[in-house]
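Workshop exercise sheet. Pairs work together: one partner reads the sequence aloud, the other fills in the structure field after running the prediction. Swap roles for the next sheet.
Pair: D.N. / O.F.
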Amino acid sequence: MIRRYCLFLLLIFPLFGAADKTTPAWKGPDRSVYVVTQNHYAEGFTPEGDTAKFGDLIAIEIFNPRGPKAEENPVYKVGEHIALFVGGQRQGDVRIRKVLPLQCDSSAAVVSTGPSFHLPKDAMALASNSDQIRPHYNNQHQASEAERDYARQLAMNEFHKHALPTTLAKNIKIDNLVVTKLDATDSEFLVGSLSLVTKTARHDVFLIARIAESAATTEFARYHKTTDLEDGKDSEDVRFVDQLDLDGDGFDEIVVEVTGYESEGFAIYHHGNGSWAQVHLGGQGGC
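Structure field:
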């Protein structure tokens, strides 16, 4: 990711399109949803004033039930308390302290948590006051070595579809990976991102895979190839943010951060009719 210390003119690249038109309609929750994280996007100034500083705990609205136009101009209410969830489990509230520009074209709320909870560095969480949310115990844990091997094998399967030889499997890097439960059953899932760099390109894949009977099966894979290895102008990095049952159907949605060349957005994936689909994209920003 390119860290920017000064923000200048607005320049948006069309890296993030709307969800596929064939995606089943998803109404989502009845209240806004936010990603809560330490600011790792940009620091500097805009015509509207100084931005949030690196390391500030911020909340970015990624879903608004009033529709896309409302998301373009999110309203953050200073003093409001918003329920915070980590791994699907309630972890108190965040309180909006102030609102600041974040990128050339976006804003964020600087927030604080209660004294009993601290969001670790590089961690991301979700917040919403929707009554539809069904919280649960946080089942996330780090993958075992066997589970990491599952992930590497599944990633190589995807890379092989794009003409990469299986001899490169030893070079696969796990960028982030968690094991978790996504519904009320005992099924566990691998969720995370892996990459493989060759002399001419970087290959990335984001996976959602079900673990069963000492094996894992891919349920969703998002692949991207970056050919500009020097500047990354065609890059796309997908990072797992967190999980939460946003619509109360008993199956957690998965939220990911998608960063490109000086831009970012947040995609929501929903499990319905036996498969995963991107049902929403929000919180876009960039320069």
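Discussion prompt: The radius of gyration is 19 Å. What would you look at next?
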